[in-house]
Every structure is written in structure tokens, then in C-alpha cells.
Amino acid sequence: MISTANKTARALKFFFLAALLAAGCARLKQCAYEGFSRDQWQQPDKVIAALGLKPGDTVADLGSGGGYFTFRLAHAVVKGKVYAVDVDRDMLALVAERAKKEAPSIVETVVAKPNDPVLPGTVDLVFTSNTYHHLDNRVAYFTNLRKYLHPGGRVAIIDFDRRAWIEGLLRHYTPSEFIQREMEQAGYVLQKNNDFLDRQSFLIFAVKENK
After folding, report:
1. Among 72, 109, 152, 198, which is disulfide-ready with 92 (CB 3.0 to 4.6 Å)?
2. Which contiguous run of DSSP H or E holds residue 181?
3. What is the pLDDT of residue 38?
4. 1, pLDDT greater than 70
5. ∠95-207-118 over CA atoms, to 5°?
6. How many domains in the chain?
7. Is 80 exceeded by the pLDDT of residue 22?
8. Neighbouring residues of 37: CB distance < 8 A, sequence distance ≥ 6
9. Rounded Cα–Cα distance for residues 44 and 178 (Å)
């Protein structure tokens, strides 16, 4: 027969375990998004360098998740602004918590709508990594997004392609030719095709000029 003390101890263990899981839900999602060896294949420093950002630039990190690129972008723009944009409030809360310590005047979180990033102002660059394939009606989405770009503003898209076999099995990828075709339909022109990532395309677009 189980004593009252043992029952109480067991109940407390379950209570603390449940509390731990609840508190760590966002962290668990962050680990699921980023994995444990992402730096090896994502080459974040090389990605940031390829963006050619300048001090004072304003950037929207679209689909920022737990901030994997957000704070690297913040370091690159120095005294500029980085909007961490996501529909996931749990992830944004993690970013906001970290931003208070590391970049309080640079990083600002933005709760997006599924069909609109709802940016508070215009930006020099919209950057998105591993998010493109999650967006619905992408031509309409990026057509609307043009209103958030400064003159000369750019859109940088990194997404898994056919070389990413795990993501391919899960249908979490977009062939680069699909991205190029859809962005052209949305009113953009390919500016640069970076080919140094081994499982992702990395394309940079500018708004097509009307002649």
C-alpha cells in the first residue's frame, strides 16, 4: 500500500515535470527548428557576409523563429534596426527576452499575420530562411510585401531545395526555379544567386523597375 507521503511526493514530481515542460515549450520548439549542428551546414557567417549589410540598415527577419539569424543580423547593422517577424508568439517571446540583454535598441519583435508581415515601417532588406515553403499564396504575399521595401530594397530567400533529403521527405522545401518564377510573378528580378550552401538555395531579389 502506498503511503500518503509517497503519494504526495509522486504528485509533486508530476507537477514539477509538467511545469518544466510548459516553461520549456518554446525552447523545445527552438531546438526542433534549429537542430544541434545547424552552424555546420547553414554557414551563418558566410550568409551574413553575402547580404552586404551596412551599419544603420533596417532588416526584417521574416520567420525569425528563435532568433538564429536575428542577432547575427543585428550585429551586422550595428545601430540599425532588425524586426524579428513571426506568427509564433512563443518564439517571439524568446527573441524578446534575449534582445533585452543583447540588442535592446536594435531588435524589435513583430507579430505577423499569415498573409502579411505587418512591418511597422519600410526596410532595406527582407531576409527569410527556411520559411518560404510555409507561406501560402506566395505570389500575392510578396507582391504585397513590396510596399515595405525602401527604394532599392532587396529580398533574400534561403530555403531547402531538392538536395535536402530529410526536408524533401517532409515536403519542407521549394525548388529554386519555383522561387524564381514566383518572385518574378510578384514583380521582382533576381539580383544574385549564391551557391555555397549544400542543401539550400540562397537567392537575392530586387524590385523590378518599370520601364
Report:
1. 109
2. helix 176-185
3. 82
4. no
5. 35
6. 2
7. no
8. none
9. 24
